[in-house]
Amino acid sequence: MTKDLHTPDNESLIEFPCDFKLKAMGKNSENFVDVVYEITCKYAPNTPRENIQITPSKGDKFISVNITIYATCLEQIHGIYGDLKKHPEVLMSL
Is 56 helix (H, G, I), strand (E, B) or coil? Predict the structure, then answer.
């Protein structure tokens, strides 16, 4: 699922720079958090690990990884979501 972050006039709905929270969901594996963090750091290299929040599913089979980044442009956000979408361990991103 990808959100359209533009108005009909192609203007950004987000005012940059800003804190931006992204979410990725996948199977609860040892390296899923690292996968999401590495993809995020590719586009937002100054993101501290302390900005990660992890929420397990009710049965602990899946986890949700929330990371707050300091976003400077829309291309940065699109890059992160694009790479998350391509990664086989990421089931969904918001």
Answer: strand
